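Re: weekly structure request thread

Next one in the queue (160 aa):
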Amino acid sequence: MAFVHDPFSMDGPGGSFLMNWGTPGANETVHAYIVKNCPRDRVLHTFTFPVKRGVWYYIGAQKWVVKDIFEVWSTLGDRVSLRSLIRGSLTLIFVKAKEVVTGKLQRRCNRRLSQQEIAEMIQDGRLQQFCIEVSGRSLKDVSRAFAKTSLGYEGGNVAQ
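Done, posted below.
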């Protein structure tokens, strides 16, 4: 099983990815763990915990493959719109995408580093992107069986 706390995720036509930025040593440790300690088929029952929602979600049986993809940091635009429902009205809030990333990374390190320091570390390579492709398309039946037998789920829409 894999438990991923407040992940960065990216979905696109080429696949779904879990991402993070870490030191080269930390990234190598995670890479080695996935390669050496995961089941041979690299299928893990995967749970995520988005902090904003405050609850663990079972996202299904997923095949985990470490991937080198394009550098996401350099593609982050100046603005990301966040839709917020405040007192019944929809509000658009614009924030810089890189600030969203550095803010989350800052919270993960208990604010030992400033967002500016984190941005500089990404830019100069002291923090590097780490990416895992997750795919559960062919594992729907495995996910359903696990949800039923291990999680007690009796509903219909599991791993759709």
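The chain is about 30% helix and 35% strand. The helical segments are 24-37, 97-108, 115-123, 140-149.
Next request, please.
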